[in-house]
Amino acid sequence: MATNTKTKKQLDAAYSVWIKSVALAFFGEAQRTVPVKSGNLAASASLKKTSLSGNNKEIVLTYTSPYAYRLNEGGEKGGLLGGASPSDFPWTSKIRKHPRKNLVNKKFVDAHTKTYKKYYKPTKIGDEWSAINYKSGSDFKGIKWIQKAWAKVYRKQGKLRKALPKTITIINN
């Protein structure tokens, strides 16, 4: 009986190492295929959890950038992002008096109100500000880099893939 218990513990340990290697391969493949413009999307990724015990089969990979879900999954024509409504447009912001950058003589810009183009909202991404278009001009199918990364890693597992979930779930937080 002691041999069976020891063997089960060894199998569980080997299984745990294997599933972590699959999760790391998934994370690596997703990071290799993530769209890169500023690097903020890739920097927001993390591998949160790996477990495949019983019916609780999950590998949790998260991208915390506000645009990650829509970029991966796509969206409907004319959809507004971030809970915006048409009455929110155009956005305005109060700009304080500040020195103009990159000038030899320090000149100050007076305080003023800035009005952004319709459907553009200033959004802080990482340490920088960007104006993001909150209205889609057409249906966007999404890049699906997360699903493609999982499919590639899943195929490489051979007969062992029966122990893995076939599909992944994308959650919009």
Q: Can you describe this structure?
A:
The chain is α+β, with helices and mostly antiparallel strands. It has two domains: 2-72 and 141-163; 84-133, no CATH class. Helix content is 31%, strand content 24%. The chain is built from four helices and eight strands. It has helices at residues 2-33, 40-43, 68-73, 145-155, and strands at residues 45-53, 56-63, 92-95, 98-99, 108-109, 112-115, 120-125, 128-133. It has a two-stranded antiparallel sheet with strand order 1-2. The chain has a two-stranded antiparallel ribbon with strand order 3-6. A hairpin with an 8-residue loop joins strand 4 and strand 5 (108-109). It starts with a helix and ends in an 18-residue tail after the last helix. 9% of the residues are buried. Residues 77-83 have low confidence and may be disordered.
Radius of gyration (Å): 23 Å
Task: Please give the oligomerization state of what you see.
Answer: single chain
SSE string: HHEEHEEEEEEH
Q: Name the beta content range.
A: 15-25%
